Amino acid sequence: MNELYFATPRSGSHAICSMSKTERHLLEYFNIEDMILPRNVDGNLILYNLIEPQALKFLENGLFEDAWKAQKENTLPGEQVYYKIMKKGCSYLNDKYPVLEEFVKEHKTRWDYLKNEPKSWCVKIMQYHYVDRQVLKEICEYVDVIKFIQRKDVVAQAISIVKAQNLPDNVWHATTEQTVKLTTKLSYKPIIDQIESILQENHYITKVLTDYNYKVNNVYYEDVDFSDSLYKKLTIEIPDFDTQECYEAAKEAGYDYTSYLL
Amino acid sequence: MLDILLVDPHELRNYFFFEDEDNMQFTEKTVLAATTQPARLIQHPSETLNGTIFFLLKGGIDERNNIDILNGAIIDKIPEDWIPFINDGVVNIVVDTCAESWSPIYRDQYYWYPEKECLDLHELLTDKCINRGINPDACTWITGDLNAEEYLKDFKGVKIKSHCIYYWISSVMCRESLGKDFLSHLGEKTFQNASLCLMRDMHKEHRLYTVHKMHTDNELYHKIRTSTPEVFLGNTVCDHYKNLYHNYTSNGFPTPFDWDDMAASIMKYYTFSPYTIENDDIDKAQRESLFALISESFCFGHKKFITYSTFRAIISCRPFIILGNKGVLKQLKDWGFKTFDNILDESYDDIEDNFLRIDTALNSFKHYKGREKKYIETFQEVRDIVRHNYIHYCNNYINANDDYVEVFRRQL
User: Who contacts B283 (Cβ-Cβ below 8 Å, separation ≥6)?
Assistant: First the structure.
């Protein structure tokens, strides 16, 4: 039994996937941007000063070839930097910038390995992975189950994304339950933008899954019991932040999710 | 796992990081403030368990139990029944002052200024150990003075270990800076200042001297953006100057500047205070500056103490001039960093005289090679060096505390 999860950010997807009964949980398996983002020797630090901003913009739009070229220009020979690569389903650090031909067909390479993997697996795909269309089609056809993870309360999800973006070191997933206090003041505008972004991503997923509805299960964050999950809730507290005002602002912008709360 | 015995462990928060601050039990998730190594508190030594009796000094002399560390009274607090374990080599003692600049008193030096944070702690600890029947060899003093270990290498008594805790801990203190971009999209409009100089503790004499020098030199005055608090330790910069002057004259030391001249320049400085740059904006201010003029925590004296001020400049990818102790640049080179002798006269690093070293460093900044060019053009001359330093730091801070942890692991 192999499972495919589709999700948007801060929908609890890491925690939900970690509860899958399959043998291998491949959560960032199709995230290939790590192949061109330089890291330090133990891989725990992305070297932001060495990333060409244009390359990031291309990655945000799934323009892998352009991103590769832009970042290549910012790569100097002999520098002790490392890139995350995937071999036989396992992640490694490599000190070589990938060759273009390998990079652009990486989704296919990873899929070719995965479809021959004898162990059962689950894999998570998000829109920003920009998985190659043909590969995506093949995965959808191949898997036994597709789970589409959503949050009913999209305003809460948008707030969560904006809060997480303001974390000092972008701790999106936590394996121990913890609370982080932020000092940053948040405005409502980015939250409205996030709502639009979540809706757009959900729309994209719905479109991709049109032909596979017979094996799609909708999973709602609010209905999941997370007690068995490897990942725990990360609570981000912000002083002087009024959640209710967020709902009001969202309502004014045309997104009324207060019915869910009632 | 590091086994730690704490004597008089009041204010535990100051010693360890806890996973759960509301439930401060020493568990496997407890880590020493200076490492990522898990630590476990043991209540009492045993023959089968190696451990460390750990005393950590953080903050000023009057804070916490620091005075007990600095007068050696901590050794008296070790329970009598632990002493056999110490002398059998099961337990060692670590006195760690490396977050602060405490150093030994350097002999045979001509002092013409009031020396700060100098103490022969190794002698005090040795005497105390002998008085209590403890083998002094079981005790290590970890000092932030990077000259001390070599200077005291022939000392018979407690061990002395020099360690720069800030090499590692700057990655935590400057975590936000590490996630920012200082190198891309730099153009003519990016650089609005020749240099940024951050000076927090304005009571320190080298900082007061630096401000004085900058404000008596028109060329420097307009090129350096400074950040200082309007009031520090309850005093304005003017008060600190007055105290400094008093400190010199009442101790019979010659003052390094003319009082009237200095008073006028510092009043001028204060008039335009505060220059404080809020934490969030320091990265922005540094990005807009070609150089980082680093006013290190210590500059005067024979110690060598390096803090996050230096590593912040490295993380921020800017060329730097260090107003610090003699030999700091050499130390950075020994660690594998590169400095900027292609555009700066770095001879200041070898100068013994403290005031002359500051004068020469400021002159080096004033006369940097390429000063007639646009800032961005000068930056291109050092781009590869700052890039090397940034990568070198990111790859090496992780292991920078290995030798520190070894002191705790030491099998006696």
Answer: B176, B177, B180, B182, B316
| CA–CA dist B56, B93 (Å, integer) | 11
CB B369 within 8 A of CB B329: no
Alpha carbon distance B1, B40 (integer Å): 7
Q: How many CB atoms lie within 10 A of CB B9?
A: 16
Out of A47, A74, A169, the one facing B394 most closely (by C-beta) is: A47
Residues of A in contact with B391 (CB under 8 A): 40, 47, 50, 79-81
Question: CATH assignment of B172-397, given 3.40.50, 3.30.70, 1.10.150, 3.40.1350?
Answer: 3.40.50
Angle of CA points B11, B16, B19, to nearest 5°: 110
Chain B touched by A73 (CB under 8 Å)? no
Could you give the CA distance from residue B65 to residue B43 in angstroms, rounded to a whole number?
Answer: 20
Q: Under a CB-based contact definition with an 8 Å cutoff, are residues A44 and A145 in contact?
A: no
pLDDT of residue B11: 59
pTM to 2 decimals?
A: 0.86
**A171 pLDDT higher than 60:** no
Which structure tokens are listed for A107? 């989704």
Which range is least confidently modeled, B66-75, B178-187, B207-216? Answer: B207-216
- The closest of B77, B100, B63, B97 to B9, measured between CA atoms, is B77
Q: What 8-state DSSP symbol labels residue A97?
A: P
DSSP letter assigned to residue A82: B
A101 in Cβ contact with B412 (< 8 Å): no
Phi (first) and psi of residue B139, to 5 degrees: -115, 135
* For chain B, domain boundaries: 2-163, 172-397
Asked if the Cβ–Cβ distance from A52 to B180 is below 8 Å, we say: no
Q: Which of A185, A168, A165 is nearest to A242 (CA)?
A: A185
Q: Which residues pair with B369 in a beta bridge?
A: none
Query: Looking at the predicted complex, does its ipTM rise above 0.85?
Result: no
How do beta strands A216-220 and B51-56 pair? unpaired
Where is pLDDT greater, at A80 or B271? A80
Residues 24-63 of A with CB under 8 A from B: 40-42, 44-53
> Could you tell me the maximum CA-CA distance found in chain B, to the nearest angstrom?
71
And the tokens for B397? 């801070």
Cross-strand bridge partners of residue A124: A5
H or E stretch at B3: strand B2-5
The string of pLDDT tens digits covering residues B281-327 is 889 999 999 999 999 998 988 899 999 999 999 999 999 999 999 99
Pick from A47, A53, A81: which is nearest to B185 by CB? A53
A41 near A77, Cβ under 8 Å? Answer: no
For B171, the enclosing helix (H) or strand (E) is helix B165-173
Q: Is A217 on the interface with B (CB under 8 A)?
A: no
Span B327-343, average pLDDT: 98
Question: Tokens for A20?
Answer: 């899958």
Q: Does A240 touch chain B (CB under 8 A)?
A: no
Nearest CB neighbour to A40, from listed B175, B181, B394: B394
**DSSP result, B80-144:** GGGHHHHHTTSEEEEEE-TTS--BPPPSS----S---SB--HHHHHHHHHHHTT--GGGEEEEES
Task: Say if CB B142 and CB B93 are below 8 A apart.
Answer: no
